[in-house]
Amino acid sequence: MSTINSAISVTFCYMECLLISTVFCALMSTKYKISQPMDYIITLGCAIRKDGSPTPILRGRIDRALAFEKEQFEKWNRQAKFVPSGGQGSDEVISEAESMKRYLTEQGVPE
Question: Which residues constitute the domain of residue 9?
Answer without folding.
Answer: 1-32
